From TrEMBL, chain A:
Name of the protein in question: ABC transporter ATP-binding protein
Pfam name, any one: ABC_tran
Entry keywords, A to Z: ATP-binding, Nucleotide-binding, Transport
A GO molecular-function descriptor: ATP binding
Span of domain ABC transporter: 5-230
Automatic annotation (TrEMBL), chain B:
Lineage per the UniProt record: Bacteria, Bacillati, Bacillota, Bacilli, Lactobacillales
Keywords assigned by UniProt, alphabetized: Membrane, Transmembrane, Transmembrane helix
Protein name as annotated: ABC transporter permease
Pfam families: ABC2_membrane_4
Protein origin, superkingdom: Bacteria
Signal peptide: none
Keyword Mitochondrion recorded: no
PANTHER family linked: INTEGRAL MEMBRANE PROTEIN-RELATED, MEMBRANE PROTEIN
Record field: transmembrane: 20-38, 58-77, 98-124, 144-168, 180-201, 231-251
Natural source organism: Lapidilactobacillus mulanensis
Amino acid sequence: MANLLSVQQLDKSFGNRRVLHGVNFEVAAGHIVALVGPNGAGKSTIMKAVLGLIPTDGGHLTIDSQPVSITSHQALAHVGALIEYPGIYPFLTGKQHLELFADKENRDTNMTQIVEALGMTSYIDHKAKQYSLGMKQKLGIAQALVNHPKLVILDEPMNGLDPQAVKDLRDYIRKMADQGTSFLISSHILSELEKLADDVLILNHGKIVQQSSMGELVASGGTSYVITTADDASAKTALMAAGLQLVPAEKIMIRQQNEKTLNQVLQTLVNANIEITDVVKVQHDLEESFLDMVNTPTTKEDK
Amino acid sequence: MGTLIKQELYKLTHKKGTWIAIGIMVVLQIIPALVQKADSEFFQLSSLISNDYLGGGLYLFIMIASAASIIAMEFQYGTIKQLLYRQYYRSQVFISKLIVIFMQLVVLKVISTIMTFTLTALLFPSFDWDQKIEGSQTLLQLYFLGMGGNVLVTVFLLSVVILIATLLKTNAAAITSGFIGYFVSMAASSVLLLLINKWHWLRFNPFSMLMTSSQIISPDMSQATLMSTPLMITLTFVYTILFTFIAYFSFRKRSV
Ligand SMILES: Nc1ncnc2c1ncn2[C@@H]1O[C@H](COP(=O)(O)OP(=O)(O)OP(=O)(O)O)[C@@H](O)[C@H]1O
Ligand SMILES: [Mg+2]
């Protein structure tokens, strides 16, 4: 499938500090791509570069094959974005904000649609200075989505949203993606992204450390077994003596290496005459894969 | 570009302050007019009229506040990213703001002028616009000459305000420096003229350009400013363009 957004070898420094190191990735048409990474990893910086809001120090950005930079913005005609926090004119109502940004064609239908989808109807005619944090956030998202752009860039869109709003937003994003809109979304709420995204980019210290589909990532996190015994200490010794790798944890936790792992473990314990009281299978989710990914070097040094 | 100008106008006209300012300006024109009507010795009528019944002078301060906020509010409200990520060039965004500021200036000037003529016609119907004040020019001619000079100096001052607003990104700083700059240089113009008399090259400094409007009405001032009126007008334009360009260049590559 054609790539709507392409980022190649993107470098960025603030003064002497190198923030992005040769970042490469693509966003395919109709895909929802999650951009995750620890605070300060460079997520917002990537998004600002894609939107031509900051000068870059190298690399090539294209949207729909048209180059984007701080001085060439034609490609951004069909892009909607919310970066970091919503910008709100306190003297305008929510509706007036949308009127201000909405394209002429189908203005009213587009506005009504997004207002209803995000559940903003009851206060859309109030002045935005009276809005709560979440209401402002929804307004910012509505502004990004109102024109049905081809590419939507959302920086931590779930910030301040209540569970209903998070669900409404997720459903709406899914619907738009099914109609062909591409999304690049950053968030720290990994469980949300797991439900939403097709692809995942993990960014750490300004480098993409992992790029894959959500399904692959979750699968690669793999399966572990947590085993409870009558005597955990002897059990650990027995397992280690049998050459089985334990995940460093208080409980007995073993990562599945192949189909035989569990059998091996149980056999070892039975042979050592240790009573097994419980076995729990744990499927790794995005959060754990993420933590593994960004903590890998330090974990190894620790143990 | 049309869209951008429309959006700027939309924001401006949806701010209450825009309308309140016009209201206050008009009221402050009406009050001195009524005072003068009640007591004809209170002001000198011809100077009251050529000063747009005092209230008209408020337009300068309205414009300083408006020019500062049209730039600085986008940074303060955090709306600058939304404004700049779209398909437009930054130059277009910047110019659309300049155009809207100029439109507001024209509208305010037209309103205050219409008020001046209306109040004069209603309250002082016998006022003679054709009387000659000094030399050969009629009061009407001087009125429009003064207006031209005033607009020129205002635009110059606004270029400074816009520059400061773009550099500092805060409303208050730009408005304060606009007001202070104006009052200080008005108050200090005699000092400035003394300094110019001592070091002639000082005459080209930007603050001298705040006297352009005075020199347009009283050409004799050229002996003190050491510049001919056409030169002063030209320099005022040059400084205006220079400051605007500096503002634009700082806006153009700004990270937001
Ligand atoms: N304007 C700036 N000047 C200097 N350094 C900056 C600037 N903006 C960002 N940085 C630095 O760039 C790095 C990446 O910042 P960025 O905002 O992209 O992080 P992020 O991944 O979005 O983090 P978060 O999850 O906290 O939003 C940080 O170390 C930050 O200190
Ligand atoms: Mg961020």
